[in-house]
Structures are given as structure tokens and as C-alpha cells.
Amino acid sequence: xxxxxxxxxxxxxxxxxxxxxxxxxxxxxxxxxxxxxxxxxxxxxxxxxxxxxxxxxxxxxxxxxxxxxxxxxxxxxxxxxxxxxxxxxxxxxxxxxxxxxxxxxxxxxxxxxxxxxxxxxxxxxxxxxxxxxxxxxxxxxxxxxxxxxxxxxxxxxxxxxxxxxxxxxxxxxxxxxxxxxxxxxxxxxxxxxxxxxxxxxxxxxxxxxxxxxxxxxxxxxxxx
Length: 224
Fold this sequence. Notes:
There is one protein chain. This protein has 224 residues and is mostly helical. The chain has helices spanning 3-7, 15-29, 41-58, 61-73, 80-83, 114-135, 148-155, 161-168, 193-199, 202-223; strands spanning 139-140, 145-146, 173-175, 184-186. The chain has 10 helices and 4 strands; from the N terminus they run ααααααββααββαα. The strands form 2 sheets. A two-stranded antiparallel sheet has the order 1-2. Helix 2 (15-29) packs antiparallel against helix 3, helix 2 (15-29) runs antiparallel to helix 10 (202-223) and helix 3 (41-58) packs across helix 6 (114-135). The longest helix is centred in the middle third of the chain and has 22 residues, at 114-135. The two termini are 28 Å apart.
């Protein structure tokens, strides 16, 4: 399995480029960007898990060295990642035979089952998600508590957002409310932005991920 191809980066990518690529690919393929009953959901989930395995392996210098050694030994071309088209990348079929006898599952997180893999993927994405929201001024502090800007964004996602906040966050104080948008909200239970995200209605998760993806992609284009 070519983790560089999965993240659409060169084998010579820096650690920062690997992290930036993970953000883009994870936001692009996140399962919550489609409804829970969508036919796309299983393929997106598998892709998301592959992306997280790739980031887990390549983001750590020691794990990356071991992976690069195995990758080189088994004949991966150094240009594979550069020549790849991420839009054409397909999720391997469950019944597809391996390209070699090497146990590539020894890399990545090494989950024992699907539930464990999903839990790991969500936890790893959660840390980077909170970092992205801090960069956008939507979270603050080490615990990534939501800012007023975050709640303003959440309040504008759907007509049900105010009801969600009132129902789920007792003691939340809202001010400067205009329509469905919230000027400022303070969560009395001190949840992190990712904890709040996980409790949002699915449609609002999809909208929030799309808006965040647009910001991340815009930054990438502007810095290129």
C-alpha cells in the first residue's frame, strides 16, 4: 500500500507537507460529508481509515523510515505519488488479491477490527480538527473550547441549530442573536469543539466540514 499516493504527496515531502496533505484528504473523504444512509458511506469510511493509517505512519520519523525501507525493497516507484490522480483513486475491493506477499497491515495503526479502526481514525482526526479550528479562530486554548465565532458558524448552519444548542448545552448563554446566527455562546460543560462537532446533527456536520474544507483549500492555493 502506497501511503504517499493515498495522501497525494511526493516521497520527499516534509513533515509539514504531510500534515497539510492529511488535513486536505481527511476533510475531502470524511464519511460525515454524506448522509449516514448514503451508498457512498462504506467506501468513504474505508478511504478515511486509509488516510489515517497513512498519516499515522508518515507523521512519525521512525515509523516513516521503516515504511520507506519496506516500500523501497518491494519496488514502489519513486514517482508513483507524483503521477497519481487522487480523483481516480479507488478503494481496494475486499476480495482483491494483494499485489505482493508483504504484510502491509503491519504499518498504520494496526487495528484488530473495524470498530477499533474507526475509533482510532476519529481520535486522530479530532486532534487535527481542533488544530484547524484554532487556526481559523473557532477554538481557543489547549482544550480547544469553542469561541463565539464557532457558535456563530454553527448557528448559521440550519434552522435547528438553536434548538440543538439549547437542548444539549444547559446553561449556555447566547447574545447578539440575529436569525439563526449566534453572536456568542459559552458552554457551561466546557466541551471541546470536536466533542461538539460529534454531537451535531449529521447534516450540520456535513456543512461544517464543507466550510472548513473550503477554507483549508483556499489557504493551500493562496500559499502555493
